[in-house]
Structure to design on (936 residues):
C-alpha cells in the first residue's frame, strides 16, 4: 500500500511547491488582499466557505425535500362521481360498477378504473361498497347464491349489507357516501380506503 | 488415455447440447402467447368454460353419476332443444340451484360465452341411436292428479315406492323439501329424460315394453306437484314453479 | 508477438497498478480454516447481484415504467423481443437465487459466530443489505405490473393505513397519490432502479471493505472464545502464521460455486421461464387471488393466522422489533464462544426461526385459509357421494355447491381448506348440530340463516348426513344423551 501512496504525496508536494512558487512571484493582488499566510484570514475564509455552502445547500435541499415530501400533504381529492343511471341497478340485487378515479393522470392506464359494489335493496335504497376487504385490501367478490361477499386472500366474509360475517376483517365493508341526482347514482370517491380513512 | 480425456468432454458437451437443441422443438421455459392471461370474459374455449362454470354440478366425467343432470344425453337434448338449454344457461332457473349465467343477470358469462357453452354441449352429445317419434313436448300444462297417481304406481312405484316416499331402489320424491327445490318443469324433464347416470330410466323404459304417453307424463308430474306444501307466499311460489 | 502483448500488459499495469490492487484485495490474507466450502455464499450473492445489474439494465432498455404501458412492454419482452423472455427469466431467477443464497450466507455467518467482535459493523451492513435485497424483491414484484403487483401494493397500503395518526399521509406518500396508479409505479420504479441499488452498491463497498480491514472470520474452534483484548492479535497470528490468501488459496471454491449457481439460474430459466406477467392490472377484474412472491409468503401467512386483536400491533411493530433484534445482535452477543455447539441459545433460536419461516412459507404457498373462489362451480361433487342418494340428498349436494360451501369445505380433498373437510362430517355431528351450524355459523363460518331457505337447509343437512364412515352409523342426537362437549366442531376455527 505504501507504494501507491508515493506518487500521490509527491504530487501533493509538487502542487504545494508550485503554489509556493506562485506566491513568491510578485503579484498585484497579493498586497491588496492582505497576507496570504495569515491564519486568521484562512480561518475566516473557511468559515465563510462553510456558511456559504450551508446556505446554498439549503437553497438546493429545501425544494428537493419539499418536492419529495409534498406527497405527504393530502389535498381533498374526492369528488362526486356518477356510476350511471340509478335504474340500471335492479332492486334486490348487488352489481359490480366502476368509475374513473377523479384526478386520474393520462399515464394511469387501467389502474385508475376503480370497481365498487352497488347494492339496491328491495325497497330501492342504495348502498355502495368499496371493493377492498377491510383486512388487507384484497378485492372482495359477491356471491349472489350464498348472499355473501368473500375475500380471496384470507377468507374474510361479509353479509349483503356489508356487515362483517366471518374471518379476519376487523370491520364491515367500507361504504361510499352516495346520492341521487337527475336519476343518476353519484358516489363520493377518489381514494383507496384503509382502516384509518374510509373511502 | 490422457489424449482421450482431453477431447472427450468437449465432444460430449457438444453432442449433448446439439441433441438438446435439436430434440426440443420448444424450450419449456419460453412463454408462448397462447398461454398469456385472458380476461375472464374473453375466454372462448368450451372446455375451459364448461370446467370453470358448469362442472361443479353437472360433472366432468360422463360415465359417473353427477349431482345435476349430465349434459351429454341425446334424449335430453332432443327433448329440451337448444333454445331451452340456452335460455336456462342465460337466466338460470330461479328458485332452484341453477344460477344465471349472463353477467346482466348476476352471472359471469357474456352472451357469446353462453352460446359457446350451449353449442359445445350440443356438439359433444352423441346422436340418438334411433329416432324417437313419440317424444312428448318440452313444455306442457299439469295433467290430472288422480290419473297421475295411477300412472305413478304403474311406472314409478317399482323404485320409488307405492306412495312415492321411497322404495327399494330410489328415495322419496314426494318429500316437500325436495319438491320445494325443483320446478314442475324439472320434474317433467326428469320423468321424460330420466337420470341415466343415477340409474333412472327414461319415459320409454320405466316398464319394459311400455312407453309413457304424453298424458301420463303430465298426470304424473301433476300428482307429484300436488305433494308440495302450500308455501307461505303462494303467489311467489307458483310463479317460480311454472317456469 | 507474445512479447509485445506482454509488454503492453506490463505497461498498463505500471500505469494502472492493477496487480497491486489485486494483491491488496483478492490477495488478502485469510485464516487457513476460512478457505472452505462454507465461505462461498457471500461471493455467490455478489455474483447474483452482478447478474441482476446486467439483466436489469438490459430490461430497462425495453420496459416502460408507466401504468399505462408497463404490461404491454412486458408482453413485448416475453413474445416479441428476441431473447426478451430469457432476460426476464434471468432477472427473475437471478433474484430468487440472490435472496436464497443471501439467506444461506447470513445463516452461515450466524452459525460461525462471525458477527462478534470486531466485525459488528460487517454484520450490521450485511443485515441492511439483506433488507435492501428483500426491498429489491418486493419492488421488483411491483415492476411486473400485473394483478398480483397491484393487489400486493394494496396489501402494503392496507398495512400502512393501520399506522395511528399518520396512516393516511403514509399511504398517500407510498402511492404518490390517493390511489394505486401511475405515480405508484413510477415511485417503485425509482426505488427499484435508482435508490435501492445505489444504497446497495454503497453498502456493499463498505461490507467488502470491512471484510478486508477486519478480516474474514476464522472457522471457529470450541474452547477459543473471543476476547476483546486479545482477539485481534490472535487473528493476526492465524493469518500470518500458517494462514492462506483468498487468491489463490480459496478463490477456486468460490469460482466453482459461482459457476454452479450461474448454471442453475440458466437451467431454471430454460425449464421454468420468467414469471408472468399474470392478469392484466385492471382493478375492475376482480377474479384474482393475489399472492406475493415467495420471499414474502411467510409474511402473508402470518398476516392471516394472527388473531385480529393483535394484528395491527404485530403487523406494524413486529418487523421493527425483529429487525432491531437482528441488528443489535453483535452488541449484546459481542464476545465469547463462536462454535455453535457451545452457543445453545443461538443455535436453538436459529433452528426455531428457520423452522417457523419455512413452515409459514409453506403455509403461505398452500394458503389453506384462502377460499377456493371457483370451487363451487368447477369442482364436481365426488360421484361416490352421489351414488344411491335420495332425490332430497341429491338436491342437498346441489345446494352445497350452489351456496358456495365448497369454496371453504373440501370434499374428497378438493375444495377450500378454510373450513374443515366434510367427507365424514356425519360421524361427528348430528343433523341438529348441522342445522345449527349452517344457520348460525360460528367463528370463521358466516351464519347462513338469512340466506338459505328451510328447504335448502333440510336438503343440505340430509346430504351432509350421508357423509360418514362406511359401515358406521351417522351421529344421532337420540343415541347421544350428552351433547357433544366440543359443541360444533365444524366451526372452522382454524
Amino acid at each position: 500500500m505504501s507504494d501507491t501512496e508515493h506518487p500521490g504525496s509527491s504530487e501533493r508536494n509538487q502542487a504545494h511547491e508550485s503554489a509556493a512558487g506562485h506566491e513568491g512571484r510578485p503579484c498585484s493582488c497579493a498586497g491588496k488582499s492582505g497576507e496570504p499566510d495569515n491564519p486568521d484570514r484562512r480561518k475566516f475564509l473557511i468559515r465563510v466557505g462553510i456558511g456559504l455552502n450551508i446556505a446554498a445547500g439549503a437553497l438546493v435541499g429545501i425544494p428537493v425535500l419539499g418536492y419529495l415530501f409534498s406527497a405527504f400533504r393530502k389535498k381533498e381529492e374526492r369528488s362526486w362521481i356518477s356510476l350511471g343511471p340509478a335504474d340500471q341497478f335492479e332492486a334486490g340485487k348487488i352489481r359490480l360498477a366502476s368509475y374513473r378515479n377523479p384526478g386520474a393522470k393520462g399515464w394511469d392506464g387501467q389502474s385508475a378504473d376503480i370497481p365498487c359494489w352497488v347494492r339496491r335493496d328491495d325497497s330501492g335504497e342504495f348502498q355502495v361498497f368499496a371493493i377492498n376487504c377491510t383486512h388487507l385490501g384484497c378485492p372482495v367478490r359477491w356471491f349472489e347464491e350464498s348472499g355473501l361477499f368473500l375475500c380471496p386472500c384470507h377468507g374474510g366474509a361479509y353479509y349483503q349489507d356489508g356487515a362483517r360475517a366471518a374471518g379476519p376483517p376487523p370491520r364491515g365493508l367500507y361504504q361510499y357516501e352516495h346520492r341521487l341526482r337527475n336519476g343518476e347514482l353519484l358516489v363520493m370517491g377518489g381514494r383507496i380506503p384503509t382502516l384509518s380513512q374510509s373511502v | 488415455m490422457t489424449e482421450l480425456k482431453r477431447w472427450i468432454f468437449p465432444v460430449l458437451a457438444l453432442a449433448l447440447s446439439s441433441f438438446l437443441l435439436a430434440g426440443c422443438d420448444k424450450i419449456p421455459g419460453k412463454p408462448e402467447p397462447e398461454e398469456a392471461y385472458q380476461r375472464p370474459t374473453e375466454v372462448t374455449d368450451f372446455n375451459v368454460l364448461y370446467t370453470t362454470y358448469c362442472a361443479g354440478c353437472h360433472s366432468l366425467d360422463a360415465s359417473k353419476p353427477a349431482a345435476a343432470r349430465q349434459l351429454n344425453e341425446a334424449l335430453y337434448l332432443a327433448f329440451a332443444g337448444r333454445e331451452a338449454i340456452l335460455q336456462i344457461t342465460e337466466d338460470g332457473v330461479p328458485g332452484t340451484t341453477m344460477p344465471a349465467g349472463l353477467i346482466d343477470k348476476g352471472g359471469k358469462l357474456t352472451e357469446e360465452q353462453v352460446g359457446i357453452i350451449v353449442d359445445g354441449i350440443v356438439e359433444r352429445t352423441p346422436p340418438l341411436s334411433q329416432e324417437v317419434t313419440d317424444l312428448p313436448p318440452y313444455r306442457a300444462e299439469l295433467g290430472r292428479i288422480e290419473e297421475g297417481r295411477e300412472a305413478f304406481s304403474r311406472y314409478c312405484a317399482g323404485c320409488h315406492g307405492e306412495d312415492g316416499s321411497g322404495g327399494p331402489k330410489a328415495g322419496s320424491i314426494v318429500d316437500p323439501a325436495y319438491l320445494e327445490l325443483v320446478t314442475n318443469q324439472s320434474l317433467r324433464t326428469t320423468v321424460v329424460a330420466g337420470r341415466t347416470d343415477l340409474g333412472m330410466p327414461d319415459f320409454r323404459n320405466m316398464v319394459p315394453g311400455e312407453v309413457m304417453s304424453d298424458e301420463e307424463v303430465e298426470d304424473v308430474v301433476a300428482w307429484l306437484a300436488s305433494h308440495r306444501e302450500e308455501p307461505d307466499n303462494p303467489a311467489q311460489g307458483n310463479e317460480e314453479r311454472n317456469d | 508477438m507474445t512479447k509485445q502483448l506482454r509488454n503492453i500488459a506490463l505497461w498498463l499495469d505500471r500505469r494502472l497498478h492493477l496487480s497491486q490492487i489485486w494483491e491488496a484485495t483478492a490477495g488478502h490474507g485469510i485464516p487457513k480454516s476460512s478457505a472452505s466450502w462454507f465461505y462461498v455464499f457471500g461471493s455467490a450473492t455478489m455474483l447474483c447481484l452482478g447478474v441482476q445489474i446486467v439483466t436489469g439494465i438490459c430490461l430497462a432498455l425495453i420496459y416502460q415504467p408507466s401504468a399505462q404501458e408497463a404490461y404491454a412492454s412486458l408482453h413485448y419482452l416475453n413474445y416479441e423481443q428476441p431473447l426478451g423472455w430469457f432476460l426476464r427469466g434471468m432477472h427473475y431467477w437471478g433474484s430468487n437465487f440472490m435472496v436464497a443464497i443471501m439467506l444461506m450466507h447470513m445463516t452461515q455467518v450466524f452459525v460461525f459466530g462471525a458477527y462478534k467482535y470486531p466485525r459488528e459493523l460487517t454484520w450490521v451492513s450485511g443485515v441492511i443489505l439483506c433488507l435492501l435485497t428483500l426491498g429489491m424483491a418486493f419492488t421488483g414484484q411491483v415492476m411486473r405490473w400485473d394483478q398480483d403487483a397491484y393487489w400486493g401494493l394494496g396489501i402494503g397500503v392496507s398495512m400502512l393505513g393501520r399506522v395511528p395518526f399518520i396512516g393516511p399521509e403514509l399511504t398517500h406518500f407510498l402511492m404518490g397519490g390517493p390511489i394505486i396508479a401511475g405515480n405508484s409505479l413510477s415511485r417503485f420504479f425509482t426505488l427499484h432502479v435508482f435508490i435501492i441499488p445505489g444504497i446497495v452498491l454503497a453498502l456493499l463497498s463498505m461490507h467488502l471493505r470491512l471484510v478486508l480491514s477486519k478480516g474474514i472470520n476464522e472457522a471457529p474452534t470450541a474452547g477459543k472464545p473471543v476476547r476483546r483484548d486479545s482477539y485481534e492479535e490472535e487473528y493476526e497470528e492465524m493469518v500470518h502464521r500458517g494462514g492462506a490468501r483468498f487468491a489463490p488459496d480459496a478463490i477456486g471454491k468460490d469460482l466453482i460455486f459461482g459457476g454452479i449457481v450461474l448454471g442453475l439460474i440458466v437451467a431454471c430459466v430454460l425449464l421454468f421461464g420468467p414469471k408472468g406477467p399474470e392478469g392484466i392490472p385492471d382493478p375492475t377484474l376482480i377474479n384474482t387471488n393475489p399472492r406475493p412472491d415467495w420471499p414474502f409468503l411467510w409474511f402473508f401467512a402470518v398476516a392471516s393466522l394472527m388473531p385480529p386483536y393483535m394484528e395491527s400491533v404485530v403487523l406494524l411493530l413486529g418487523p421493527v422489533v425483529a429487525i432491531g433484534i437482528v441488528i443489535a445482535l453483535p452488541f449484546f452477543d459481542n464476545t465469547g464462544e463462536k462454535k455453535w455447539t457451545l452457543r445453545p441459545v443461538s443455535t436453538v433460536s436459529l433452528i426455531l426461526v428457520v423452522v417457523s419461516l419455512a413452515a409459514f412459507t409453506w403455509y403461505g404457498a398452500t394458503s389453506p385459509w384462502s377460499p377456493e373462489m371457483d370451487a363451487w362451480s368447477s369442482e364436481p361433487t365426488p360421484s361416490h357421494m352421489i351414488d344411491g342418494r335420495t332425490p332430497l340428498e341429491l338436491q342437498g349436494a346441489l345446494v352445497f355447491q350452489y351456496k358456495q360451501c365448497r369454496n371453504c369445505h373440501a370434499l374428497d380433498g378438493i375444495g377450500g381448506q378454510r373450513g374443515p373437510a366434510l367427507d365424514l362430517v356425519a360421524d361427528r355431528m348430528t343433523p341438529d348440530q348441522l342445522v345449527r351450524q349452517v344457520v348460525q355459523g360460528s367463528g370463521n363460518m358466516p351464519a347462513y340463516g338469512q340466506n338459505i331457505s328451510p328447504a335448502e337447509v333440510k336438503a343440505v343437512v340430509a346430504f351432509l348426513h350421508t357423509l360418514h364412515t362406511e359401515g358406521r352409523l351417522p351421529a344421532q342426537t337420540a343415541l347421544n344423551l350428552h351433547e357433544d362437549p366440543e359443541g360444533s366442531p365444524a366451526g372452522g376455527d382454524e
User: Anything to note?
Assistant: Chain B touches chain A at residues 97, 99, 106 (CB under 8 Å).
